[in-house]
Structure formats: C-alpha cells, structure tokens
Amino acid sequence: MIEVNAMGDACPIPVIKTKKALSGLTGPDTVKVYVDNETAVQNVTKMAQSAGGAVSSEKVEEKKFVITIEMQGAPKTELPADEAVSCIPDQRGDLIVVVSSDRMGEGNDELGKVLIKSFIFAVTQLDQLPKTMLFYNGGATLTCEGADTLEDLKSLEAQGVEIMTCGTCLDYYKMKEKLAVGTVTNMYSIVETMAKAGKIIKP
Predict the structure, then answer these.
(1) Is 51 in contact with 78 (CB distance < 8 Å)?
(2) Bridge partners for 82 per DSSP
C-alpha cells in the first residue's frame, strides 16, 4: 500500500502527488491519499477514476479525509502533465436527492433493495454532485450501521455532499445510535432544504 500525505496542500498539489504515486505502479496496489478539504477529494477522485482506479473516500475527522484508490496496475490512460493539472471548483450543484425507502420502485422487495444500492452508487458518478441527500422513513436505515450503501454515502460526504437523516425516523426504528454517516435532522430542516432546492430527485 502507498500512502500520500497531501494535508495542508493547496490545489493542484494533492492531484499532482497522487498522479506521481499512480504513475509509479507496475502491478495491483492500493493508494491512500490524505487531504483536508472536500474540493481536493473531488479533484483527486476524478483524476483517479480517469486512470482506471476504483475510488472510495471517507471523512475521518473534521478537515481530514482519506481517499482510497484500488488500482490493478499502471494507469489505463495517460495522466496529464503536472502543468496541465487544473483545479476544478466545488462540483456540487443545487440538486437535492430525497430517499424515503430502503428499496426502489414497487414489485419484488429484493430487487428493490438492489436498485436503491445501484441508485446511490450512480449518484456518486454524477458530473455535478448533489448539494444534499435527505433520508427519511425507510430510507433512514440506509445511513445506519450494516447498510450496504454506507461506502458510497461516506464517499459522497467526503466530497462535500450533506447527508441528513430524519431524527424522528431513526427514533421510530430505534437506530439513532447506529447512524454511521452524516447528521440527524428534523422535519423543519427537511422542508426548508427541499423548498430551497433547484431540483429534487426522488427514486
């Protein structure tokens, strides 16, 4: 495993350091990159994905994020020269994603659970990430321990996406102590967030 410390580095230094680590790979390996802001997470993630890496990220504490890049070998595409590396501003728009169930659609429940996991993964691949994701009713369980959506949600949180879960719902399901990503919110904040949204997507 290779570790890259880019804490405190201004853009584009985190991307350049990561690029150099990836360029030196000759076989399968894992690269962990440490940065201190969400925009750096977004920029490193985009570059690593373009190189063929499987990328996940997590906010481990305030102003500390770890990006994990799983590579099968040398980058699949030629990486940009250092002088060509650009700093992309915060890639979040005014989109709000609202999730009210632990499954997507009607019909087979097991299929519905597969679909909601795929939906959340697809959100991580958007060119412009949502500003906020709201979880309530059955959707509240997706942000708690044991949910197979946690890795993708933690990656979204690390890139600056607000993950907010209804506190009343967590209390109802007796899962408040099991919340594993994001913060607890209330109905007033949910309504206010949705009212201010430029666009809302609900699976």
Answers:
(1) no
(2) none
